[in-house]
Each structure stands twice: as C-alpha cells, then as structure tokens.
Amino acid sequence: MLSKKKPSTEDGAESTLATTYSTRYFGERVPKYTMPRKGMEAEAAYRLITDELNLEGNPPLNLASFVTTWMEPEAERLIAQNNHRNFIDREEYPQTGVIHDRVVNMLARLFNAPEESESIGTSTIGSSEAIMLGLLAHKWSWRLRREAQGKPTDKPNLVMGTNTHIVWDKFARYFDVEPRLIPMTPDRYTISPEEVAALVDENTIAVGAVVGTTFTGEADPIKDINDMLEELCQKNGWDIPIHVDGASGGFCAPFLQPDFEWDFRLSRVRSINVSGHKFGLVYPGVGWLIFREKSDLPEDLVFSVNYLGGEEHTYTLNFSKAATMVLAQYYNFIRLGFDGYKRIMEGCMENALYLSRLMEKHHRGNMLVMSDKLFMPVLAVRSIDPSFSVYDLSANLRETGWIVPAYTLPPNAEDVHVLRVVVKENFSRDMADMLVADMRKSYKYVRNIEQKNIPRGKNRSQPTPC
Predict the structure, then answer these.
(1) Which residues pair with 240 in a beta bridge?
(2) N or C: which terminus of the chain has fewer CB atoms within 10 Å of its end residue's CB?
(3) b vs e for 30-41, b when ≥16 Cβ sit within 10 Å of the residue's Cβ?
(4) Cβ–Cβ contacts within 10 Å for residue 260, how many?
C-alpha cells in the first residue's frame, strides 16, 4: 500500500518534483528588514534576487554612465576565478602585487612620464579615492614646504572649476581646505589660465584641471595653465602643482588626442587619476593614481603594516579589497595593447560622431549638439525649443528603456539644460539609429504634452550626473 505521507518541508526542504518558482518561498514576503530565522534553497535565493534586479535599467541602454557595462567572456572568467583574492595581502598573493606594479608602470609611460623619473602610483576603488589621495599628498607637500620656510600652514586653498566632480568639493570639506571655485558661463564650460591666475597664491596646494568633464566631456586648457604656473613660479617662487582629473578622459586622450598636452609632458602636472572602470574598459570598481615622481608622495603618508605575514606598504583610504579588477585591467592591457585600445576608442568616437550627425539631421531646430568638435565620445545636447522640457524627454526615453540623463550645467551656467549621451564600446551604429528614432517619438510626445499644458506624473527634479 502506497504511503500518503506528504514530502517533508522541514528546514526549507521541498519536494524534488516542484520547480523553484512553485516552492513556498515565492508565496511568502521577501525578507526586507530582519534576517529570516530560517534560510532557503540556494536556487530560490538566487531567483528572488535576480527577479528584483530585473526591475532595474538595462546596462547596454544606460547612456548616462561612463562606467563599463561589457567585458569579454575570458575577462569575466578571470574575474570569477579570482574573487577570493584580497589585494592588500601581498604576502599571500605576491604575484597580484607584481601585476599591480606593472599596471602602474604602464600607465606612467602611457601618460608620458619622463624616462628618468621614478614614477609611483596605486590602484584605488575608483577616481574619487584617487583624487582624495592625490590632493592629500599635495596638501602635505605644501605644508612641508611652508614649515621649512618658517611660514604659517593654517590657510591652504585649492583652485578648481565648478566643472569638477563632486569629490573635489568633498576633499575640500573633509580635509579643511578652502575651495576657490571658477564659475562657468552660459557659453563656456571649462576654466581658463587667466581665471586660475586670479585665484592662486602662496597658499594654493594645487590647481585642479579636468580631462573629460562629467558635464560636457570637454578638457581644460592644461598646457596654458601649466605655462602660466611656470611663469608664476619664476616670478614669485610659488611651487604650485596641477592634479589632472582624467577619470573620464584619461583613457581617451592618449588614443584620440595624442597631440593634446595634458599629462606628464607638462612640468607642473605632478599627479593624474584615471578610472579603469570607465574608458579603461574594466567593470566597477578600479581607479588609478599616478605620481610623476616618487618625491611627489610624502613618505609620512605611506603606512607600513606587518600583521599580514610580512611588511606591507599602503597608501589608500580603503584597506581590504578584491584584486579582481586590478587583474582585469592588466588583462585588457596585454590583451588589447596600445593599438587595440586605440581601435576601440576610435570606434567609440566614430559612433559618437555618427549619432551627432543623426541628431543634427532629425532634430534641427529643436535640439543642438553643444560641441562642434568632440574631445571624447560624449555628446551633450541642449534644447533650443522652448516648447518642451529635456527632463520630460529624458523621462519618456526611460519608458522605452533608454537611460539618458538631463541636468543643468554648473554655476554660473545653471540656465543651460542638457541631455548627455556617453558612447561606450558596446554602443553600435544600429543602437544610434534606434536611439534617435525613439528620441523623435519621445520629442513629439513631450512637445504635445507641453503645448497642451497637461501635467505629467514624472518628477521633473534634476538628477545628479553620473
């Protein structure tokens, strides 16, 4: 006689005849605020989280972010196989440290560090940490110089444009440095050497310059600023360094703008940060900080620890972190080489120019691409039709899957409202055609809504640029 006993469900066990979605876990509330007393099957936990993430944006259609959303399968396999490696533990994983140092040297040479220089650098979680560390080194160096001269050190300042990333403001507040901000204008979104000269003095720890601004993808005139600072040094003895924020454009300029002088070819450029997880073509999160000379990093900022089995030297805000993205960066460098990166960057730029021409063709009279000559594959587009809002256009594009941010430019250009498109490696010509077609549909819809003065359900607040 067959047993009528039901399959046991103790400790989360389910009948082997049930599919994952027919188990009890999908008929109960998902744990949100308190750790559940009992666990669940691995497949059920995986499915519950994966289904929630399906509500998020589609990464290939995320044109808001500079961050890499695609890597080769071999790179993904390398990452998966090394997730257990703690980067900081060089005693246990010495070859990871060797590979890290190779990448630092490759970047120093890519950024034209003099052959005779002893460059130094470190990986970081991203460019925000790298900028913090670079500026902290310059503050320390400034203070040491002032102390050696018997001068006060209580009023450090940092000169930068309002086109810098928010982390620059964070640094000034966190580390008690006066920010001296150069405002933008309605028709200029970079800083000038004249404006820098008007703000620097003997208490300036550094001048911040940007290669590839978050807002428009443009570059500050770094050579002109460098030459001006050299003249001031000769005249007043002010030894003011430049820190270049190359988070977005540092991996583009060497391949797309080789004649543009922004790096260690310039004497005042003493440190550069770049984001490996942007146009460095690596998943989040890895950034890099490179100093022109070892002497640009004060020794007092480097810590030694010996509790990992050997003496380690560290100059980071974070301690433990995964080694995977450092390895992925090295993979890209040896996999692609200079020519491979150049080919990818040129492909991105060609697709950006193609998209620009499409927009000019189909949106003439209502939207304007803001730069006649792109510095990097980033398009900033402003509305010249007062009958619609770029925020509503951005929201309507989101309904079709595209993520295209809308925002105002920095002070004093707040009246300029723009859309921005970042053209990455996996953005094809076909995607450009589809985007412009959807933009045309969205534009017609939004303009009709605006003209009829019909209230929209979307929030018109301005998101912070990625």
Answers:
(1) none
(2) N
(3) eeeeeeeeeebe
(4) 17
Shared-domain flag, residues 266 and 358: no
Among all chains, which residue has been given the structure tokens 């599919």? 19
∠ at Cα 91 (87, 93), nearest 5°? 50
Whether omega for the bond prior to residue 412 falls within 30 degrees of 0, making it cis, is: yes
Chain-centroid distance, C-alpha 147 = 36
On whether residue 205 sits in a domain, the answer given is yes
Distance CA 99, CA 102 (A): 5
Comparing C-alpha atoms, which of 214, 204, 210 is closest to residue 238? 204
**Residue whose C-alpha is closest to residue 222's, from 191, 249, 184:** 191
Is 328 contained in some domain? yes
Residue whose token pair is 């000019």: 360
In the numeric block, which tokens belong to residue 465? 């640029």
Instruction: Render pLDDT for 317-362 as a digit per residue (tens, 0 to 9).
Output: 888 888 999 999 999 999 999 999 999 999 999 999 999 999 999 8
User: Domain residues for 346?
Assistant: 338-452
Residue 398 shares a structural domain with residue 298 = no
* CATH number for the domain that contains residue 382: 3.90.1150.160
How many domains are there within the chain? 3
Show Cβ contacts of residue 383 under 8 Å, excluding neighbours closer than 6 positions: 366, 367, 368, 389, 390, 393, 417
Cα distances (Å, whole numbers) of residue 129 to 7, 273, 430: 54, 9, 36
Between the CA of residue 324 and those of 65, 78, 85, 193, 284, what are the distances in Å? 21, 8, 7, 40, 10
> Cβ(349)–Cβ(378) under 8 Å?
no
Rounded CA separation 305/315 (Å): 11
CA distance 243 to 258: 19
The least confident of 104-113, 135-144, 333-342, 360-369 is 360-369
Q: Tell me whether residue 377 is in a domain.
A: yes
Cβ proximity of 228 and 200 under 8 Å: no
Other CB atoms within a 10 A radius of the CB of residue 77 amount to: 10
